[in-house]
Amino acid sequence: MDKIPRRTILKSSAVLAGMHLLENSLLAVTPQLNVAVIGAGAFGGWTALHLLRRGAKVTLLDAWGPGNSRASSGGETRVIRGTYGANKIYTKMAVRALELWKENELRWQRQLYTRTGALWMVAGSGDFETASIPVLDELKLKYTKLTPDEAAKRYPQINFDGIKWALWEDEAGFLLARQSCEVVLQNFLKEGGEYIQTQVQPGPIENGRMTSIKFSNGNEMNGGSYVFACGPWLGKVFPDALGNKIRPTRQDVFFFGTPAGDTRFDEKNFPVWINHGDALFYGIPGNRWRGFKIADDTHGPDFDPTNSDRKPSETALKAARDLIAIRFPALKDAPLVESRVCQYENSPDSNYIIDKHPAANNVWLIGGGSGHGYKMGPALGELVAELVFTDKSADPLFRLSRFEK
């Protein structure tokens, strides 16, 4: 794993000192709260860490471990970007998340974020990208609008036939996914948290509160407050409260081999890219030497994250190869070197679910990442920790009541 350069660490020492002073002041004034966080992925792991740093006694639990192969937070890499159409809430969260990724990189002296920029290639209407620009302006995120010719001068590796214009997002890049989940857990433990690997079932709800949770070995825990961040399993854990509001879908991801010695598609020479036409394909360069990553963002068929086999679809593979042949001619005949099947856990409107259980005021339900949640982990965890401590409600965009309208 790469280390942060020493010069960067020294320049940031004052910032980190201020962070420690803030944490110490919070510990001094905040009464201790006991919290069990179920799920050690991007949402649960960061929530547990932020709760701990606010002074709570926190136990983090997961059935298979952080970033495991069944988890939506598994795999090597995820995109981080701020382009979200007209949705300022998400762009603001992305800005805060990137700040927190960088702060914790310095704290841990571990590189988790790689800045490559992101190239949005507009082959469709461009409404989404156009609506993003005023938000990017307001939040002072650097971007550039490019003509196809201008983009081709930057990246001759790309064939821009059929592309109307492009949006270059300067601060975008990619995050280490599985590895970051592990790093969050390691530092959660160093900072005083407790981790248990076990399957968890919710206990009884009495007088508006959940009294306990049950482990697969028969043990029970009374955590005081509970945060369930169970990813694609959240709907099955709470069928009465959530019903079909969490829908896991199958998502195929492919990695193609670049020519030997050819660095044109490495992260130092190539950006995160999005090809937005009738479908939205995206890719990540380099991927820590795993190959040229490509995936279709279209929600796939329903998927059982526990029991389904994860053999890639030939149909999805053909679609990926077809796009590569058009957009990246040098990789037209590239071999498939690796593939994986992950899943999204989609809410009906693709917005996150951050709300209390309707019948238990000490239970928070956190999920609905919908394929764009990983990057937000640090900011979402910070938000959830604040809500748990202050007993406030999340923005209406994230509440369960939005589905009742």
Overview of the molecule:
With 405 residues, the chain is α+β, with helices and mostly antiparallel strands. The chain has 2 domains: 31-74 and 178-246 and 349-404, FAD/NAD(P)-binding domain (3-Layer(bba) Sandwich), CATH 3.50.50; 115-172 and 247-341, D-Amino Acid Oxidase, Chain A, domain 2. Helices cover 31% and strands 26% of the residues. It has 11 helices and 22 strands. The strands form 5 sheets. It has an 8-stranded mixed sheet, with helices on both faces. A 6-stranded mixed sheet has the order 9-2-1-15-22-21, covered by helices on one side. Strands 3-8-4 form a 3-stranded antiparallel sheet. A hairpin with a 7-residue loop joins strand 18 (280-284) and strand 19. Helix 3 (42-53) packs parallel to helix 7 (178-190), helix 3 (42-53) packs across helix 11 (377-390) and helix 4 (88-108) packs across helix 11. The radius of gyration is 21 Å and the shape is globular. It starts with 5 loop residues before the first helix and ends in a 15-residue tail after the last helix. Mean pLDDT is 93; it is low at 6-10 and 24-30.
Question: What keyword list fits this structure?
Answer:
single chain; 405 residues; alpha+beta; FAD/NAD(P)-binding domain; D-Amino Acid Oxidase, Chain A, domain 2; 2 domains; eight-stranded mixed beta sheet; six-stranded mixed beta sheet; globular
Give a short overview.
The protein is built from 11 helices and 22 strands.
CATH superfamily of the largest domain: FAD/NAD(P)-binding domain
Named at the architecture level, the CATH assignment of the largest domain is 3-Layer(bba) Sandwich
Low-confidence blocks of residues: 6-10, 24-30
Measured between the Cα atoms of the first and last residue, the distance is 48 Å
Principal-axis shape: globular
How are the strands ordered across the major sheet? 6-7-5-17-18-19-16-20
Task: Evaluate the radius of gyration.
Answer: 21 Å
Briefly, what CATH class of the largest domain?
Alpha Beta
CATH topology of the largest domain: FAD/NAD(P)-binding domain
Mean pLDDT: 93
